[in-house]
Design a protein that fits this description.
alpha/beta; 2 domains; 5-stranded mixed β-sheet; two-stranded antiparallel ribbon; 16 helices; 7 strands; 52% helix; elongated
């Protein structure tokens, strides 16, 4: 058994701190390495007579501290008389290990405040960093947030989903605010979070503002927008993308119906409603919807009002059958937002908007990385049809614009 193993065993038997044990040995090893490095540079060992008259010699030392995951190292860096020696054992002008920097950045990404991180680092590593120092270390995360909101997006998205989720945020007091999220799927099936933004409450005007920003970042053509029953959403979409269709989420429509009927009738009525949106074509679906309303409005008169505006009910039937399962509801983005909300439960509330931004950016950046290159279900088979739809729908606009420019 090596001396190190023997000493470690003895330390454990005595109940000594393992971190302290490794810290002492690491400190000794680094100091020995620094002395060996200078000896190699000078070409002779300390007190060796061969160094007399060599033109250079040892000239004392200076002390440095260096933080590691085991604690603070106290190192003694030797110097030469001519000032030509530059040690390579420790990085110049660096007083933190990469391991510590990584820890700080990861905590910062999770939405922890700089003051909280400073306290945590002191407990974990036995060394205090001021909130300002922690903030400087993690500046890369703030830059990542700026990049996310300013990056160029694709010009074409076959489908764009809009949905919001509520997160607790402290301003003067703690309240839930609406995180608006926009997710897009390209014609080849790649999906990504295009943008997110925080507002006090969800509204169509907020999404319209976000879409305006996305157009400035490169978005030009969309075939279909999908959202829940938010008032004014279809009109907001049309103002920004007149050629695009809008689809209301059928899951939300079913929930609206369920709220209006007695519990004992729900299974029957929702089963009948499912027949409506699972037809093979829009004409058949329209016919089934008429039959559904006629059958049940005598008992529940408010049902008809849910389906009074049919413009966005059956848009998904215009699109290839292979992707209809993904586009008749907003479940795709809702499930994604549920994942975000689940992760955020680690923090009961976000202490400020910057903290929330970092957390959300980290989550959605990872989402985009994870799904980069993956083809969403059904889009592989539908790509050629979707591209043809783009050509038919937008080429006329482009031609007209070219003629006007001429």
């Amino acid at each position: 058994m090596s001396n190190l193993n023997t000493e470690l065993m003895n330390a454990l038997l005595k109940g000594d701190s393992v971190d302290e044990f490794f810290l002492q040995h690491l400190e000794t090893a680094i100091n020995d390495l620094l002395q060996a490095e200078l000896s190699s540079f000078l070409g002779y060992q300390k007190y060796d007579p061969s160094g007399w008259g060599s033109g250079n010699s040892r000239n004392g030392s200076y002390e440095r501290t260096f933080e590691t995951k085991y604690g603070e190292l106290h190192v003694v860096v030797p110097r030469d008389r001519n000032g030509d020696f530059h040690q390579q054992t420790l990085p110049d002008y660096k007083h933190r290990s990469n391991d510590l920097e990584t820890t700080i950045i990861q905590l910062y990404r999770k939405g922890i405040t700089t003051r909280e991180i400073s306290d945590l680092i002191e407990k974990m590593y036995g060394h205090h960093y001021t909130p300002a120092t922690v903030s400087n270390i993690a500046k890369a995360v703030e830059d990542q947030v700026k990049v996310f909101h300013s990056r160029t997006v694709s010009a074409r998205y076959a489908v764009v989903y809009c949905d919001a989720t509520y997160l607790s945020l402290r301003r003067d007091c703690v309240a839930k605010e609406a995180l608006h999220v926009i997710l897009g799927i390209t014609p080849d099936g790649s999906k990504e979070i295009l943008e997110y933004a925080l507002y006090p409450s969800e509204s169509a005007a907020n999404y319209e503002e976000m879409l305006t920003g996305l157009k400035q970042r490169g978005l030009k053509e969309v075939l279909l927008f999908i959202s829940d029953g938010l008032t004014g959403m279809a009109d907001a979409v049309k103002r920004q993308f007149p050629k695009a269709d809008h689809q209301s989420c059928w899951v939300h429509l079913c929930r609206s119906v369920a709220r209006l009927v007695r519990e004992k009738d729900r299974k029957e009525i929702l089963g009948a409603l499912k027949i409506v949106y699972t037809q093979d074509d829009a004409a058949s679906a329209e016919k089934e919807l008429d039959a559904f309303i006629e059958k049940y409005e005598k008992k529940y008169s408010k049902i008809r009002g849910i389906f009074s505006n049919r413009a966005s009910l059956f848009s998904f039937y215009k699109y290839p059958k292979s992707i209809r399962q993904s586009i008749y509801t907003s479940n795709l983005i809702e499930n994604n937002n549920k994942g975000l909300k689940h992760k955020s439960k680690v923090k009961e509330q976000f202490p400020n908007e910057s903290s929330l931004e970092r957390f959300v950016c980290c989550y959605y950046s990872e989402y985009n990385r994870k799904h980069s290159g993956r083809v969403h279900k059904g889009f592989g088979q539908a790509e050629s049809e979707l591209l043809e739809m783009f050509s038919q729908r937008y080429s006329v606009v482009e031609e007209a614009a070219s003629q006007d420019a001429a």
